[in-house]
Amino acid sequence: MPETIAPPSIQSLLIQMRFGDTILGTATGFVVNTKNGPALVTNRHVVTGRHQDTNVPLSSTAGIPDNLVVWHNQLNRLGRWVAKRESLYMGDVPRWKEHPTLGARADIVCLRLTDLTDVHLYPYDVSNPGPHIRIGPSDLLSVVGFPFGLVGRAGTGLFAIWATGFLAIEPLAEFGELPVLLIDCRSRNGQSGSPVIAYRSGGMVAMSDGSSAAFSGSVSRLVGVYSGRINAESDLGKVWKLSALAELVASV
């Protein structure tokens, strides 16, 4: 990968929620490896097409998605993407997997990927999420995704857009009695399912044990999965913790 491209910019994947060929909305996802093969991580409300708390359809058409179109990195052609369709149901049975204990309460899911022809995967490793960068209240975090379905163009590129904000809660704390952090960030529709990362451009970086470490290049640590603002009037967004994601991935 060219040093000029930050890996998270291509690890985030644009998703279209569709009913048949009708586009109902856009979101973000990313790939993880499970014991049964590669899977897409995104929010539960993305695959259900319904508000996580009210169950009201998200699309103005009231349509519910039956498939996702995922824009993957193309094999041997960095900077180009290829669209792959993934069915959300096998008959009437949902294909996605929910959190093993929280179930529908957790707004994160895994969907096994079935069509990877001509695709190059750049997965996140939940068991090795990156260096132990210090992450405390007011420290910078980035939501790397596709607000309003917008992309960063470079030729035919679909590079993700970075929205950066601040951790708004103690990392050991939980919001709503769930494994959820809060981020103070101007994030918007379309970023649902985005990886949330602590990204540092290099040099001396504060570490979680109180020390500092020197890095010759950029470093990042996966923190969790973004799932939307706490309400329409707030810039506080919910981030499902890496611990919850790791439990989900281990169960798939």
What Rg is obtained from the alpha carbons, in whole angstroms? 17 Å
What is the first-to-last residue Cα distance? 29 Å
User: What is the structural class?
Assistant: mainly beta
Trace the largest sheet across and list its strands: 5-4-1-2-3-9-8
- Highest-level CATH class of the largest domain: Mainly Beta
Number of DSSP E strands: 17
Architecture per CATH nomenclature, i.e. the level-2 architecture of the largest domain: Beta Barrel
Principal-axis shape equals: globular
Instruction: Give the helix proportion (percent range).
Output: under 10%
Characterise this structure:
By secondary structure, the protein is mainly beta. It folds into 2 domains: 8-112, Thrombin, subunit H (Beta Barrel); 140-241, Thrombin, subunit H. Helix content is 8%, strand content 39%. The protein contains 3 helices and 17 strands. The protein has helices spanning 8-11, 44-48, 242-251, and strands at residues 13-19, 22-34, 37-42, 67-73, 81-87, 89-90, 93-94, 97-98, 109-112, 140-145, 161-167, 180-184, 195-200, 203-206, 212-215, 219-229, 236-241. Strands 5-4-1-2-3-9-8 form a 7-stranded antiparallel β-sheet. Strands 10-11-12-17-16-13 form a 6-stranded antiparallel barrel. Strand 14 and strand 15 form a beta hairpin. The two termini are 29 Å apart.
